[in-house]
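User: Design a sequence. Structure:
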């Protein structure tokens, strides 16, 4: 599929609630270049997940426009994939069957023996890349939380998306598993290049993974800082000790301190 630039112009989102309207997003405007890894960080309730849902076509903006590859976003588009915080694996299907599910849903020559063999080999290669070689016949209930999320990422990437959206995919994991998942994700990103929009609460995670970090204000959310991350790829454990990495982290923390989101006791 062709590479696509994302253009967001003056996007707003207001939800109607029993207590009255609640504005989640206010005048968000930005462009995201093809094949870039962009993280969005901000306080709880600032509209990060709302923005991702709009990009995914799962909801519509109250104002403004979103275009992906020059096409106005009105519904989910082919070539886009989403990974949520909860893995959403189907418990009655094996790991392999879960990963191959997109081909069945899209009816992509699933019953052609040659394509079926090729797709299965690709899934096995992905499982090996994330340390799950030999787990294809296991069921989700037999896996840990981190293993399940790896399967979820494989299921998204096997579609070879042009845009991968990830909504706090490591949020429910313990600290050590979360760190390993960062390295796994970077390996997969380097192998299966696509545009990534990554939602997270972790400043360090955002800087380590990204080409660019968008810092959002408290609700109604808007982009208050757009930071280009000048750190060489591939990245590893030593990257997090780099003085530039630490400076980016301090810069983002400084934004939150100025907003009153972070405060020293």
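Assistant: Done.
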């Amino acid at each position: 599929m062709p590479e696509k630039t994302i253009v967001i112009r003056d996007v707003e989102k207001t939800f109607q609630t029993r207590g009255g309207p609640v504005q989640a997003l206010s005048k968000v405007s930005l462009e995201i270049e093809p094949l870039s890894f962009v993280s969005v960080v901000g306080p709880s309730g600032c509209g990060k997940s709302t923005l991702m849902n709009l990009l995914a076509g799962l909801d519509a903006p109250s104002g403004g426009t979103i275009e992906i590859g020059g096409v106005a976003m009105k519904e989910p588009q082919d070539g886009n994939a989403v990974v949520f915080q909860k893995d959403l694996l189907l418990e009655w299907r094996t790991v392999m069957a879960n990963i191959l599910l997109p081909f069945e849903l899209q009816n992509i020559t699933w019953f052609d023996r040659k394509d079926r063999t090729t797709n299965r080999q690709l899934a096995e290669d992905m499982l090996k890349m994330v340390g799950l070689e030999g787990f294809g016949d296991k069921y989700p209930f037999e896996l840990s939380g981190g293993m399940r999320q790896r399967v979820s990422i494989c299921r998204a990437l096997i579609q070879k998306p042009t845009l991968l959206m990830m909504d706090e995919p490591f949020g429910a994991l313990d600290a050590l598993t979360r760190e390993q998942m960062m390295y796994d994700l970077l390996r997969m990103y380097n192998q299966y290049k696509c545009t990534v929009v990554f939602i997270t609460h972790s400043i360090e995670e955002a800087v380590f993974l990204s080409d660019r970090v968008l810092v959002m204000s408290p609700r109604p959310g808007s982009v208050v800082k757009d930071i280009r991350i000048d750190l060489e790829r591939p990245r590893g454990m030593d990257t997090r000790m780099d003085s530039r990495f630490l400076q980016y982290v301090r810069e983002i923390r400084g934004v939150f301190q100025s907003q009153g989101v972070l405060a020293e006791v």
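The longest strand covers residues 20-32. The longest helix spans residues 113-129.
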